[in-house]
Amino acid sequence: MENLQDRSDVAQIGTENIIEIQGLTKCFGKQKEIVAVDSLTLNVKKGEVFGFVGPNGAGKTTTMKMLIGLLEPTSGTGRVGGFDIVREIINIREVTGVLPEPAGFYDNLTARQNLRFYAKLYDIKEDVREKRIVELLDMVGLNGAIDQKTGGFSTGMRKRFGLAQALINDPDILFLDEPTSGIDPKGAQMMRDLIKQLSREKNVTIFLSSHAMSEVEEICNRIAVIEKGNLLAVGSVEELRDMVREKEGVQYILEISNIPLQDVAGKLSDIDGVHETYARNGMLYVHADAGMRAEIANNVKLMDGTVSRFEEDRMDLQKVFLKLIKS
Ligand SMILES: Nc1ncnc2c1ncn2[C@@H]1O[C@H](COP(=O)(O)OP(=O)(O)OP(=O)(O)O)[C@@H](O)[C@H]1O
């Protein structure tokens, strides 16, 4: 699986913060009793593909809406592309593109007519506009449907068309709310490839929310995890994994010969920092604090055991996420 965070050749990530959020808060209700986003502080660097994940109702959409000027924060501040999210919404609209969930179009208009309409809102000149419409529809694989009404588009086509629409003003920053939800695996892969292509070839900064952890793991350089409006963690998959390793320990898997696994399990479970040991299918599983590898190996050696395999169960983002939200 291609992973952007390991590939500095893919995205040119700058040092400059293109999105800055300070203590951002949004409350709903007469008494402001529903705290949807609670003092959120985070930065996104230019060129990053930034994943925003959290359970249902965590506050992802509300945050995005505040960042693009659709909702006014209750308190806190934010800047997008250098512009203030309350006072400079018009400027933000100029430099951003948005794929909302669900995406809405004028369904009785064709793909070309829809894009023409949005292009006019941005005052894009006719010659540039017509060329861009064809290029964008080509990019998202919808050129064959250019003169079809969007009302007849499938869910996958609507998502891709929504991406073309979000790109009509050639934005520096793209906000994508669940860009692959409801579309089939092939369509989802195409969407991910497009997102990677935009990052790689156009250096567009992408801020996306998703419930698909494998997708976020595949395409995001960094990820913020939120729950009940609060930021739980932010970092690359590797950094988030390390946070969980430090907090919850790791699972080692050992293949040992010469001595009975039950004996090793018993001996290792007496060591400080080893939380659980059990043998299954000829392998020994050891749940221990991170960094106990050498000590475990030594103890097996002292018992005259031979270790032929010693692996750490590498948590994927799905596991990391579940551990972060339950701790
Ligand atoms: N207009 C509103 N009025 C009252 N409460 C709202 C409003 N909009 C959102 N909320 C509440 O704010 C919280 C955060 O909602 P939000 O839609 O931002 O979550 P989310 O992380 O995008 O969820 P999902 O993954 O389900 O899309 C939820 O408890 C939601 O019910």
UniProtKB/TrEMBL annotation:
InterPro entries listed in its UniProt record: AAA+_ATPase, ABC_transporter-like_ATP-bd, P-loop_NTPase
PROSITE patterns the record matches: ABC_TRANSPORTER_2
Matching SUPFAM superfamilies: P-loop containing nucleoside triphosphate hydrolases
Keyword tags: ATP-binding, Nucleotide-binding, Transport
GO terms assigned for molecular function: ATP binding; ATP hydrolysis activity
Domain ABC transporter: 19-253
One Pfam family named in its UniProt record: ABC_tran
PANTHER family xrefs: ABC TRANSPORTER, ATP-BINDING PROTEIN (PTHR43335)
Family: Belongs to the ABC transporter superfamily.
Protein name: ABC transporter, ATP-binding protein
Organism encoding this protein: Methanococcoides methylutens MM1
